[in-house]
Design a protein that fits this description.
By secondary structure, the protein is an alpha+beta fold. 55% of the residues lie in helices and 19% in strands. It contains 17 helices and 10 strands. β2 and β3 form a beta hairpin. It is elongated. The chain starts with 8 loop residues before the first helix and ends with a helix.
């Protein structure tokens, strides 16, 4: 016995015949075209927006991870953890570098400009291990962070009008006791290098100085220092933070994800909301398929009646009109995927073109932190978007297909 086909040759033939345009189907063709364009644009826009948001999140993580310690251990009891003497096999297996650091807030005084800044202290040896120092955008001496030298962000140096070799005055938040009261500490530093993290917020507010100099400048001791842990794989942060917390059960342990949790939570919420809002474009466009198929059923009343009168089953009529809707929706989805992926690849080129033509800033650095519009095409996102689009198309195609099957052939032919 031959296995029955899911869709017979006759059903395919009639489906493609109904899909072909005819002169008296002008309005129907317009609806079909708008359905196709609407679904394609909805899918394409969703892919572009999701790709940009995925790219933005990945780029932001890479910048933050490249500039900050992956995990920081701070002692509650002000106990110094010496990375040179510290040896724990489980930690050594996941970590790349263990570094001592400290930080404090100060004010840079340059001519008539005063600027608050966070000073980070590292030893000369540890400073050269930082990822930001190995970057090709780094300018100046990489292995020289001695007593009175300072490394500034390029954004900060531009704001203050400084270059390598210039001297700046920095005022500490801690003071010196004198006969007339407590006076803030002041110290002159020489700019020895300039770094660029890619995040303007970091480049404009953080500077590096020698660790011993920082301790002296803020009246701190070795016991106030933090242990910075740089991991081999900083992405899988939660599991690795758990390992570190077990090693230091009595200390305060926090990761780059903890210090930026509000930012990434906001990004996640925004991404989900954008997905829901943009999905409405596909739903609205898909409802045009209902209109188109309903008009097609009306236009093909005589044809349906003839098909029924020669013995074509109701389920075959349902399949024919259901297939028409699904073919329009699926082909529109495929076209939308191609369009979306193409635009996602060239989104930065498009941004530059539109910015130059209309003379407007479409992706300002000071708001979005990044100098270029990132894009990361995620296959899982594309699969989810495609399945949602095709599922919506399937749902809206069911009602007109069932309506076509319920048509009475005697009444239909009587009024023709």
């Amino acid at each position: 016995t031959k296995r029955k086909k899911l869709i017979s040759t006759l059903e395919k033939e009639i489906t493609f015949r109904f899909l072909k345009a005819r002169k008296n189907d002008g309005f129907l063709n317009i609806i079909s075209i708008f359905s196709f364009i609407g679904i394609s644009l909805g899918v394409a826009i969703l892919i572009i927006v999701m790709s940009v948001m995925n790219g933005f999140r990945t780029e932001l993580i890479n910048k933050i991870v490249g500039f900050n310690a992956h995990i920081t251990v701070k002692s509650y009891e002000k106990k110094y953890i010496d990375p040179a003497k510290f040896n724990y096999p489980q930690l050594n297996s996941i970590s790349k570098n263990l570094i001592s650091s400290n930080s404090g807030e100060a004010i840079i005084i340059q001519k008539d400009i005063s600027k608050g800044v966070v000073l980070r202290g590292y030893s000369q040896k540890d400073f050269s291990k930082l990822k930001i120092i190995k970057d090709e955008t780094f300018v100046g001496e990489r292995n020289n962070l001695t007593k009175n030298y300072i490394s500034l962000g390029k954004e900060l140096s531009f704001t203050l009008g400084l270059k390598i070799g210039d001297d700046i005055t920095i005022m500490s938040s801690s003071g010196i006791e004198t006969v007339i009261g407590t006076l803030p500490k002041k110290k002159i530093f020489t700019v020895v290098s300039l770094f660029e993290s890619g995040l303007t917020d970091f480049d404009n507010n953080i500077a590096f100085i020698n660790l011993d100099t920082l301790d002296e400048f803020f009246n701190l001791s070795k016991n106030d220092r933090n242990l910075e842990i740089y991991l081999k794989n900083p992405q899988n942060i939660e599991n690795q933070k758990y390992i570190v917390q077990k090693i230091f059960p009595d200390e305060f342990v926090y990761s780059w994800a903890d210090t930026n949790s509000s930012l990434f939570s906001a990004l996640k919420v925004e991404r989900n909301v954008m997905f829901i809002i943009l999905s409405l474009i596909i739903i609205v466009a898909a409802f045009n398929i209902i209109s188109g198929l309903t008009i097609l059923v009306k236009n093909k009343t005589r044809d349906i009646a003839i098909l029924k009168s020669i013995g074509v089953l109701n389920k075959s009529i349902v399949k024919i009109f259901f297939l028409i809707g699904v073919i329009i929706g699926t082909s529109a989805t495929i076209f939308g995927i191609i369009l979306g992926i193409t635009f996602s690849i060239y989104v930065e080129n498009l941004r530059q073109f539109l910015s130059s033509v209309f003379n407007i800033s479409l992706f300002p650095e000071e708001i979005y932190f990044l100098s270029t519009m990132p894009s990361e095409i995620n296959p899982i996102s594309i699969i989810i978007i495609s399945l949602c689009s095709i599922l919506i198309t399937i749902i809206v195609s069911i009602f007109p297909a069932l309506k076509a099957a319920k048509l009475d052939p005697i009444k239909a032919l009587k009024y023709e």
